[in-house]
Amino acid sequence: MARYQQGDFTAATTLIHRLSPQLHRFFLVQFASRGDADDLLQETWLRIHEVRHTYRAGEPVLPWFYAIARHIRVDHYRKASRTAAREERLEQMPEVAAALPPGSGATPDLEALLAPLPESQREVIEMLKIAGMSLEEVARATSSSVGSVKQKAHRAYEKLRERLSGMGGVGEG
Amino acid sequence: MKDKEIDEILKRAAQAPHEVDPALLDRVSKSIGSSLGPVRPLPPAWVLVGGLALICAAVALAGAARAGFYGIQKLSVLERALIFPALGIFVWLGATAAAGEMIPGSRRRAAPGLLLGAGSLMLLVVFAVLFHDYRTDHFVAQGIVCLTVGLLHAIPAALASWFLVRRGFAVNPVAAGLVLGTLAGLAGVTMLELHCANFEAPHVMLWHTAVIPVSAAAGAVAGWAARFHRG
Predict the structure, then answer these.
(1) CATH architecture observed for domain A1-92
(2) Which residue of B has its CA nearest to A28?
(3) Is the ipTM of this complex over 0.85?
(4) Quick check: A171 and A99 in contact, CB under 8 A?
(5) What are the structural domain ranges in chain B?
(6) Which of A22, A71, A159, B116 is most buried, with most CB under 10 Å away?
(7) For the structural domain made of A95-173, what CATH number should be given?
(8) Contact at CB, B231 and A79, closer than 8 angstroms
């Protein structure tokens, strides 16, 4: 990141290739379509580029990236005023059952797995479990406290447990 | 189902390969590369916090120097020892929060609304403990004057603060506006405490303290407008 700030093109390209898949997935998990996720990813990188001077060396880098990505996503939804459209999309989301085809070895579909969760819980789970961020890092990225992140993760697990158990041990083989 | 089992399911889901269109990544790399140059990182947080706190103090002192230090001259040692440290703590917390709002991924110790509410309440308690003159002579007329004077001093404090943090990036412009407005309001209240010699409890508690939420609300509206303008 420091090299990117100094204008190193190779460092910038490396960052783009390394972080884009997880940022793209972050947008997909938030019910964005593949096309929307592509647009959001592109917009995120342009914004990151614009404000790259705000990153301070020594600070954790993932919360900085995710805070900006989150901002782009929120802005995107606000701009589009798509409350009604999103509700329609929610209705169209696949059931959790589709996320976990019977059989222990099956790879569950992440987007479908997290679909029943509210947005705030989904993003916390995505950051904690998929991006591998710590509680402190997620708290920074979401401008909240560690306690609040823990609470959201706990509630998300409760919901996931309820849904997964209701499916009669799907995934347990 | 245990947490570990859910962890395992999520882990498996996370391990599924996820590709991004290479053409998209190339496009992003090219558009970034075309304007890539070295940038000067923001100064350390303590510089921003110190700068913001100094702006508040400077605006309050300059305003009181012009209008007269009647208030602080009339205050007892105990009153001075309680009011100004309380304002100082509030300013420091506000400056820390403002600097944090301008740097994405910063640690947030308190939500801007909580800071505004708790800080204003703390000042109200200090005023309630110290001032016991419950007369309300010229309550509205004098109150409007103090509120106006306080807000007039909040404006330069807000502008100077914005100038200092202008290179930052407000992830949430409304929250950033709210915090900067709170800070600017504190400059106004500090000026009033230095200048205003009206120690009637209702006057101080309502009209002096009101500068903070009014200024904070103006800051939040400015932040909202900035977000709206940014599109």
Answers:
(1) Orthogonal Bundle (1.10)
(2) B18
(3) no
(4) no
(5) 3-33, 45-230
(6) B116
(7) 1.10.10.10
(8) yes
